[in-house]
Design brief:
115 residues, alpha+beta, 11% strand
Length: 115
């Protein structure tokens, strides 16, 4: 989630954010299985082995993406005005080891639909 839930991302930003996320995941020897997002948040489905510390992966995903997006899209600086951060400090992570991937994908895809 973006800091203060600012509506920051356009489709162009999300496309680049997915590329950056895939690169960071590859560096951690993990797999980005699914990516989806809206103007103020993203959903990631990441396959990773137990040796990877989730907090370190999330910290790297947020740090690298924030830095690269700021460099490549200077117009995003307007959204950093209060705390000089793009992302909220919080995140949600859940385990879906027993759920079929198709069900998880369906859940992620439905997150952006209006109720």
């Amino acid at each position: 989630m973006t800091k203060f839930r600012h509506p920051v991302f356009t489709d162009t930003h999300l496309t680049r954010l997915e590329e950056i996320t895939r690169s960071v995941c590859a560096d951690f020897e993990t797999e980005l299985a699914e990516f989806d997002g809206g103007d103020d948040h993203v959903h990631l489905l990441v396959n990773f082995p137990p040796k990877v510390a989730l907090s370190k992966l999330v910290n790297s995903l947020k740090g690298v993406s924030s830095r690269r997006l700021r460099q490549e899209f200077p117009e995003l600086a307007a959204h950093y005005y209060r705390a000089n951060k793009l992302w909220s400090g919080s995140y949600f992570a859940g385990s879906v080891g027993g759920a079929p991937l198709s069900i998880v994908r369906q859940y992620i895809e439905q997150q952006n639909r209006p109720v």
